[in-house]
C-alpha cells in the first residue's frame, strides 16, 4: 500500500456547489462564483410562451427525431429515456437512435430521420463538427435542430442548445481537488493554515471532438492556475496542455492506460501523487483501477489520491461513498431532458424556446441561443442530500453501486 504525505484532507461537511446558469451570463461567468448555498434553486419550470392557432397540428401527427451518441455511458441511456418519455407524455411520436460512438452511423441515422420528415431534431453528437451536411439538409427541409448537451459546430443551422454551465463544471472539479487537498474550506475559501505542499497532480481532459471538454478543462485550469503559479501544485509529467491530456471518445480503458504509463514513468519508488483531475466518472474509474493495480489506496485515507469526476454515475457514487473516489459533479439530466422537451415543444407549436444565454456558445458560424442548467458538487457527506433525497438514486443503489 502506498503511503501519502497528505495528512490534511479538510473537513468533509456537506458541500453542494451550484454554479450559476444565470440569464445573460453563461458558462464563462462561473469562474468567480464560489458561493456554497445549500438552498439550491432547483426550479424546473420549463414553461414557454407558446401561443398557438386553433388549427395547430395535433401532437400525435408530429415526430421528434432524437439522436444519441452511445449506449456505453450510463448517462446517455438515462438522457435518452428521459427525453423520450417527456416527448411521449406531451403526445409526440419519437424516433430514438443510438449511434454507438460511430460518426457514419449517426450521420446515416440523421439522414434517415430527415428523409422520413421528422418535425424537430434533438441531437447529442459524437463529433460536433461532423454533421454539417445533415444540418444543412434539416434546414432545407424546415426542420429545427436542438443541440443536446454537446454543441453542434461549424454550421449556421443550429436553432437552440440545451446544456449545463460547462465552464462551471470544470471550476467545480478543480475546487473539489483543492478541497480534498485541504487547500480550501467548505465554503471554498483558502485555508489560513493549509498544508504547504507542493502537491503532485496529473491532469486528464475529455474527448477533443466534444466541445464541452474544452469548457471543462478551461474552467478547471483557470481555477488551478494560481496554485501552479505559486508552486503549491506541480505536474511531474509536465503534461498540462489539452492536447496532451485529452482522452478520445471519453474511453475508460484509454484513461486507465494513460494513468498506468504516468505511474510507470513518473511515480516509481517513493514519488507521491496527491490528486488527479478527471473530467468524467468512467475516466475516474479507469484512473482508479490503474492506481489500485499499482498499489495505491485502497481509500483516500489510506493513500489513494484525490480523484474528481462528473455525471454522478452510480458506480462512481458508490466509490465516493466508500471513500475511494473523492468527488463527482451531478448534472441532473432529468432537468436537461425537461428543457429539451420544452424547446422541442416550442418549435413544434410554431414558437421560440426560452434562452437564458445568448452570448457564450459561438459554434464557429453563429452564437447559438442556449439554456444553461446549474450543477452540483457531490462529496461523500452530501450523497444523501444531493442524490437520494432528490430521488435520483435509492440508498440501495448507492450501497450496491448498481442502478
Distance between the termini: 31 Å
Strand neighbour order, sheet with most strands: 2-1-3-4-5-11
How is the biggest beta sheet arranged? 6 strands, parallel
Low-pLDDT stretches are: 1-55
Number of strands: 12
Question: Tell me, what's the shape?
Answer: elongated
What Rg is obtained from the alpha carbons, in whole angstroms?
21 Å
SSE order, one letter for each helix or strand: EHEHEHEEHEHEHHEHEHEHEEHH
Share of β-strand residues = 5-15%
Structural class: alpha/beta
Number of domain modules: 2
Q: Which CATH class of the largest domain applies here? A: Alpha Beta
The CATH topology of the largest domain corresponds to Rossmann fold
Number of helices: 12
CATH architecture title of the largest domain: 3-Layer(aba) Sandwich
CATH superfamily of the largest domain: Response regulator
Helix content: 25-40%
Mean pLDDT: 89
Signal peptide: 1-23
GO molecular function, one term: carbohydrate binding
Subcellular location: Cell envelope
Domain Periplasmic binding protein: 65-351
Describe, in short, the structure shown.
InterPro entries: Bact_Solute-Bind_Prot2, ChvE-like, Peripla_BP_I, SBP_2_dom. Pfam families: Peripla_BP_4. The protein is an alpha/beta fold.
Question: How is this structure best described in words?
Answer:
35% of the residues lie in helices and 12% in strands. It is built from twelve helices and twelve strands. It has a six-stranded parallel β-sheet, sandwiched between helices. The protein has a four-stranded parallel β-sheet with strand order 7-6-8-9, sandwiched between helices. Strands 10-12 form a two-stranded antiparallel ribbon. The N terminus is likely disordered. It is of the alpha/beta class. The chain has two domains: 151 residues, Response regulator (Rossmann fold, 3-Layer(aba) Sandwich), CATH 3.40.50; 186 residues, Rossmann fold (3-Layer(aba) Sandwich). α1 crosses α10, α4 runs parallel beside α5 and α7 crosses α8.
